[in-house]
Design goal:
It is found in: Membrane. By secondary structure, the protein is mostly helical. 84% of the residues lie in helices and 0% in strands.
Length: 213
């Protein structure tokens, strides 16, 4: 999973020399902040836990992109610490979604499938666009890798939301919505663990790997 120290350093040097990385992060930040607002309103209106979970994921990603912008060009150790912080955001999101799904299971009505499908498709288009922009940086240091993993997981989650909308439409039950919310939490959990391990490996590498990017 984790790349070698040389690969991480080389990826960081590329990011520093390429102003495109910073521009992409700004685009990703704006897109994710906007989609958080859209999905939170739509999720509340449609009574969809999956949309609400995805909205919070967009908010967490917007914060992650802001952190990534703040550490561009800093030493590898600082970028690894930023990735460590972002992994905790991802794990916290997973815990919230699991808890929300359990509470919704106790007393929940079926959400509106039309709203779920339409907003899920919009979110998918936004995340696929960001993921394509970030693809070339997927093998960089832990900070860069965390940005790619977040975007990749979001696109997968959006497809799941659209499938949940079809499930709700076909069954009239909230189960598909709750199941997808659980899947999204699992994605955040596995992604957070990956980023956590990579960041800890870079921090463990010590001063030899912590060269300015």
């Amino acid at each position: 999973m984790a790349d070698s120290c040389c690969e991480s350093a080389c990826g960081s040097e590329t990011a520093k020399a390429d102003p495109r990385w910073r521009r992409i992060l700004w685009v990703a930040l704006i897109v994710n902040a906007a989609m958080f607002l859209v999905e939170m309103v739509a999720g509340s209106t449609a009574d969809s836990r999956a949309l609400q979970a995805d909205a919070l994921d967009f908010l967490g990603d917007a914060a992650n992109y802001a952190v990534s912008l703040a550490v561009v060009g800093t030493a590898l150790a600082w970028r690894a610490r930023a990735a460590l912080l972002k992994s905790l955001f991802m794990l916290g999101f997973a815990a919230w979604v699991f808890g929300s799904a359990i509470l919704a299971f106790v007393n929940s009505t079926a959400p509106d499938p039309a709203t779920m499908g339409a907003v899920g498709a919009l979110a998918l288009a936004a995340n696929v666009g960001v993921a394509l922009l970030l693809y070339r940086y997927r093998t960089g240091d832990a900070n860069m890798r965390s940005v790619w993993i977040c975007s990749r997981n979001d696109a997968i989650g959006n497809v799941a939301v659209m499938l949940a909308a079809l499930g709700v439409l076909g069954t009239g039950s909230a189960w598909p919505d709750l199941i997808v919310a659980g899947i999204m939490a699992a994605l955040a959990l596995t992604g957070g663990v990956q980023v956590l391990r990579h960041a800890l490996a870079e921090l463990k590498a010590g001063p030899a790997a912590a060269k300015p990017a």
